[in-house]
Amino acid sequence: MVDYDKMLNSRIKKVKPSGIRRFFDIANEMEHVISLSIGEPDFKTPWHVREEGIKTLEKGKTWYSPNRGFAKLRNEISSYYRRRFSLEYDPDSEVLVTVGGSEAIDVCIRCLVEEGDEVLIPQPCFVCYEPITEMAGATPVIIETKAENDFRLTPEELESHITPKSKLLILPFPNNPTGAVMRRSDLEAIARIVEKYDLFVLSDEIYGELTYGGERHVSFAEIDGMKERTAVINGFSKSYAMTGWRLGYALGPAPVIDQMTKLHQFAIMSAPTTAQYAAIEALKNGDSDIESMKKQYDMRRRLVVGSFQKMGLSCFEPNGAFYCFPCIKSTGLTSEQFCLGLINSKHVAVVPGNAFGECGEGYIRVSYSYSLDHLGEALNRIEEYLSEIKNR
Amino acid sequence: MDELLKLLSGNSKFTSDELSMILDEPKDYLEKQIREYENTGVIKGYQAIVDWDKVPDAKVTAMIEIKVTPQKDTGFNSVAAQIMSFDEVESLYLMAGSYDFAVYVTGKTMQEVAMFVSRRLSTLESVLSTSTHFLLKKYKESGIDFYEDDSEEDKRSLVL
User: Fold this and answer.
1) DSSP per residue over A121-166, as a string?
2) Do B58 and B34 have their domain in common?
3) A249-271 b/e (C-beta count within 10 Å ≥ 16 → b)
4) What is the pLDDT of residue B147?
5) I need a labelling partner for A314 at 20 to 30 A (CA). Which of A120, A145, A257, B53 fits?
């Protein structure tokens, strides 16, 4: 008999599995569920991008790529950052192409922290930062962002969580699940604290292109003095609707990217080849695709946020990503009770806010990555559900 | 294209409240705009898009190509007026290319449609020839998918 408990790495065993699985299992088993729970674009990858992938497959270009990614792709990424954010990254030493943004986050955290270090993580946020930190042996320090600050990280909140062990700050904006964005002035205030305490920053800007309300996304690396202490994580999944291609990248100071490349090289070897060819096409000729998808998301965003406000659920205006995060505390239910009730009685699936950290309790994450018709139907059902709860 | 018209042509059931949120325009303004479109005939009407194959007494549809002799004074218009006066004719278009009119005709059976073509359309004075094509299967109409395999189903996995 093998004693697996003894066999397995105790640090990995200690990591809690994603709590949301149980809820997703229920949603998956139920028929005719209208979902507002999915965290990826409903658009297909633009045809010219898919076609480029197909062409290279037809030509048999199916070999490994260089560890850091094709030079041509790194050049395009670099010129995209120059064009959109006026940032200069050397394609040879400051760019690493990865398997999705997720791999970039993983190698970045693992390269930077070790036992004894603390990683500052604003929550609610995407679920991966905390477990990756734990698996790296470091300690996650959770900073709860608040609805009254539109779920932005404030310098006061950040400073109050800093200890001599603090090393890395995660900046997950535009934010999944809240849709919060950090504008330039917000980032400048954070930068002063980062400098004061000599922190390094992992800025996860995967939703950067999906920023609404007139102002463009500002990269944390654009703020004075921050480029040298920031790894910017981005990718093709959200902006070009390329989730399944699994392609992301990290930009940062050469010494950091060098170490990340080492990890990537030994663990992954190289990012998917076909996806890289397609991504070159996306960066070269895809700006208008981003604009047209963004316009659609923006219409949906206004419908969803406006409808929640009309239903009497307080919902701050999310200005990024494709989520909104209404507060359901007025119903007297917990997030999970609310979501289970909604799926059982109305067959509508949304995600309990506490899946993204304890401070998400009392909220639900609603994805508007769906057609307007689909959203309209789901919102009607949520409204019925709310009035049924009220009349109970 | 006008965003309002684009939205309504996809789904005319959006309420003015919904349209106001989606387009970020005041409700009164949009209602006025819609009335104006209706009054000036930009919006001709609102219809349900029916999948007739699912209704017990199903209909058959044919597209008929017609070649005609244009009339001296009125050109194609008077011929068109004759053709469109039949209740069986659902749509009528003047075409560029190898024939003149495309006529969409519905009937209860293929026989009924064929009879209509031979008795009513072919016999019109200016009609030179007709060619009837029966619709076998509808995949897409008015931007709506009628093809019910699972290819358009939401295949995205539940991933946070």
Assistant:
1) EEES--TTHHHHHHHTT-EEEEEE--GGGTTPPPHHHHHHT--TTE
2) no
3) bbbbbeebbeebbebbeeeeebb
4) 80
5) A120
- pLDDT category, B159, cuts 50, 70, 90? low
What is the spatial distance between Cα A146 and Cα A133, in angstroms, rounded to a whole number?
Answer: 23
**CB count, 10 Å around CB of A247?**
27
Among the partner residues B7, B24, B160, nearest to A127 by beta-carbon distance: B160
Q: Which of residues 21-50 of B touch A (CB under 8 A)?
A: 21-24
Best A302, A339, A370, A380 residue to mutate vs chain B (most B CBs within 10 Å): A302
User: Domain of B67?
Assistant: 52-137
Residue B152 has what pLDDT?
59
> Which residues in chain A land under pLDDT 70?
19
* Tokens representing residue A126 in the block: 């995407």
The alpha carbon of residue A309 is apart from the nearest alpha carbon of chain B, in Å, by: 11
User: Torsion over CA of A282, A283, A289 and A295, rounded to 10 degrees?
Assistant: 140
pLDDT of residue B151: 59
Q: Mention the CATH class of domain A4-45+289-390.
A: alpha beta
ipTM over 0.90: no
CA distance A303 to chain B (A): 5
pLDDT band of residue B44 (cuts 50, 70, 90) is very high
CB < 8 Å to B24, chain A:
302
